[in-house]
Amino acid sequence: MQITASALSLNVPDVAASADFVRRHFGFVEAMSADGFVSLSRPDAGFHLIYLRTGLESFQPAAAAGSADGLLVVFTVEDIDAEHDRFTAEGAPIITPLQTEPWGERFFQTADPNGVVYQLVQWVDAPQS
């Protein structure tokens, strides 16, 4: 198998709200859209981020047409502190404050208007005990 492209597709009630959030705060750009659908990308992400309006009759399989509950969209960044400052200055909600886990994961989380959780992370040296 050769994979030629990747995408993450999320069902949300308000497609425009999620798309606007990732355009504003993450720098994604629209690749294509239609009624109830938008595909966004950025060259360094390695995948398209797709939002589908919840309840679309064309969604397959219908049994999987729930929301993004329990899903984290995670981006590794080079300077987590600068990104935290930027997100704060832009007024993005910080739902999990900046913290460092014992294994060296420094991260914070934000959420879009539909409740999709985005985690930004930087791997740092594990704190000394």
TrEMBL record:
Domain VOC: 4-123
Pfam families, per the entry: Glyoxalase (PF00903)
Protein name: VOC family protein
Species: Brachybacterium hainanense
